């Protein structure tokens, strides 16, 4: 038995050493051959893009699919004459309903955005000459009495026109072929995206109908390769991750739809232009926390500015009020405490996620950081419990707002006075309640 234990121990040390060396080699390769890594990931994305789209679509419509399957299955089981394949029929109906929802959402967005966008562009083109003429007439009427100012403005406008012509002649025309090539690549890329997205919808059907099998296989692999406690920890972490992502994404989508509807109703009541298009922009960008409403407000305000400057000012006020309503009332009611993050960490997650991964990073940065924060907190609390210390944050808070705070209290009220939380003089562990009472008593005695 002793020999077997030594062999197992040596095997574990050898595997650890091999993994360390492998990680070092991969890190060295990633640093000095980063271009190869980029090409590898680009190639992998081109191959796996339909599967990624399918997984995302299946994850988003999974609540609708589950609800439909459960409802249909319960209705079929109430019948006296039960069918042979009740679950198969329920999954089929759930699949049809989910696919219909996907297409309804896609075509609904297209019907709302595309006609409004086309009408907006046509309206801007039609009104632009009149607006330029109106501005020119206003300048002539108000600056006619100031010839020096009018001369400076005319000189600045002439310089701008000359710079524009020079830029077009020297930069745009010589590179017209490369621009045409870039436009062609963009069109081809968009066509490829549409093809991958359509294939992703088909793949999402397989994900929806096979997810119970996939989950069973993953659980089987985890249980077979890890100890019971470790396997339970992994499965619990997966459940928490799914709850965090699902709660945040679904809640944020519902929240954004409500904000878009409110924006549309207000703009329609006051008779502002492009109400449907602007409401869609505001609703879509509202998915991004903090900055989403303002990101959508910039192009929307510019559209209104061309038509009616005062409407643009009123719209900015409306966006500010919507942001306050969403951040303080609607968002907390819908999302609740789905992430468990403080406002500072939410802002941090949005900025870092957006800086690293763009628009997608700004949306998914919060749930990803919430999961990381959860695991870090669990690891920290586990270490504190092993040492016998309290895990309550209030026990570590310090009153820094006194006129003359105690230096020991600023550094930590137990750094200079022993270990007040879970250990007595004999070194045995106490629970958090007894430790807190002991700490309170010690504080009263010192005062």
Description:
The chain has a domain at 393-446. The protein is built from twelve helices and no strands. Helix content is 83%, strand content 0%. It is an all-alpha fold and 447 residues long. The protein is globular. Mean pLDDT is 75; it is low at 410-436 and 438-447. α1 (2-32) packs across α2, α2 (34-77) packs across α3 and α6 packs antiparallel against α7 (275-285).
Q: What is the helix fraction of residues, given as a range?
A: over 70%
Structural class: mainly alpha
Number of contiguous helices: 12
Integer-rounded radius of gyration: 31 Å
Mean pLDDT level: 75
Termini separation: 60 Å
pLDDT < 50 runs, ≥5 residues: 410-436, 438-447
The count of strands amounts to 0
Shape: globular
What order do the helices and strands follow? Answer: HHHHHHHHHHHH
Beta content: under 5%
Report the sheet with the most strands, covering strand number, pairing sense and barrel closure: none
Key structural traits:
447 residues; mainly alpha; disordered C terminus
Short description:
Helix content is 83%, strand content 0%.
Helices, strands, pairings?
Layout: H1 2-32, H2 34-77, H3 86-143, H4 147-172, H5 176-225, H6 228-270, H7 275-285, H8 292-307, H9 309-335, H10 343-387, H11 407-411, H12 432-446
Helix pairs in contact: 1-2, 2-3, 2-5, 3-5, 3-7, 5-6, 6-7, 6-9, 6-10, 7-8, 8-9
């Amino acid at each position: 038995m002793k020999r077997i234990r030594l062999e197992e121990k040596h095997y574990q040390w050898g595997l650890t050493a091999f993994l360390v060396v492998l990680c070092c080699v991969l890190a060295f390769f990633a640093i000095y051959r980063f271009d190869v890594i980029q090409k590898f990931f680009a190639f992998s994305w081109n191959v796996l893009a339909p599967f990624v789209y399918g997984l995302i679509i299946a994850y988003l419509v999974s609540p609708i699919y589950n609800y439909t399957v459960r409802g249909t299955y319960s209705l079929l089981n109430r019948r006296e004459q039960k069918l042979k394949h009740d679950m198969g029929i329920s999954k089929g109906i759930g699949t049809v309903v989910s696919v219909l929802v996907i297409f309804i959402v896609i075509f609904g967005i297209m019907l709302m955005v595309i006609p409004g966008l086309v009408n907006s562009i046509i309206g801007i083109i039609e009104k632009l000459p009149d607006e330029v003429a109106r501005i020119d007439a206003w300048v002539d009427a108000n600056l006619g009495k100031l010839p020096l100012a009018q001369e400076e403005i005319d000189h600045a406008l002439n310089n701008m026109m000359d710079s524009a012509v020079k830029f077009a002649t020297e930069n745009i025309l010589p590179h017209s072929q490369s621009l045409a090539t870039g436009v062609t690549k963009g069109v081809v890329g968009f066509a490829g995206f549409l093809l991958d997205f359509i294939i992703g919808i088909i793949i999402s059907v397989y994900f929806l109908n096979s997810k119970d099998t996939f989950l069973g296989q993953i659980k089987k692999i985890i249980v077979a390769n890890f100890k019971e406690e470790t396997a339970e920890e992994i499965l619990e972490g997966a459940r928490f991750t799914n709850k965090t992502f699902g709660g945040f994404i679904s809640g944020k989508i519902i929240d954004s739809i409500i904000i878009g509807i409110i924006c549309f109703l207000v703009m329609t009541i006051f008779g502002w232009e492009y109400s449907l298009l602007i409401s869609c922009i505001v609703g879509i960008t509202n998915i991004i926390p903090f900055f989403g409403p303002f990101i959508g407000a910039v192009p929307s305000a510019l559209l209104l500015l061309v038509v009616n400057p005062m409407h643009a000012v009123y719209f900015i006020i409306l966006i500010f009020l919507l942001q306050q309503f969403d951040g303080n009332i609607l968002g907390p009611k819908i999302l609740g405490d789905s992430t468990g993050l403080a406002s500072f960490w939410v802002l941090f997650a949005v900025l870092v996620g957006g800086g690293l991964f763009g628009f997608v990073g700004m949306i998914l940065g919060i749930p990803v950081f919430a999961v990381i924060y959860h695991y870090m907190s669990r690891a920290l609390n586990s270490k504190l419990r092993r040492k016998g210390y309290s895990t309550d944050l209030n026990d570590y808070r310090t009153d820094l707002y006194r006129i003359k705070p105690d230096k020991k209290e600023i550094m930590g009220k137990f750094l200079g006075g022993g270990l007040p939380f879970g250990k007595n003089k004999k070194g045995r562990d106490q629970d958090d309640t007894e430790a807190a009472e002991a700490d309170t008593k010690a504080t009263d005695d010192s005062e």
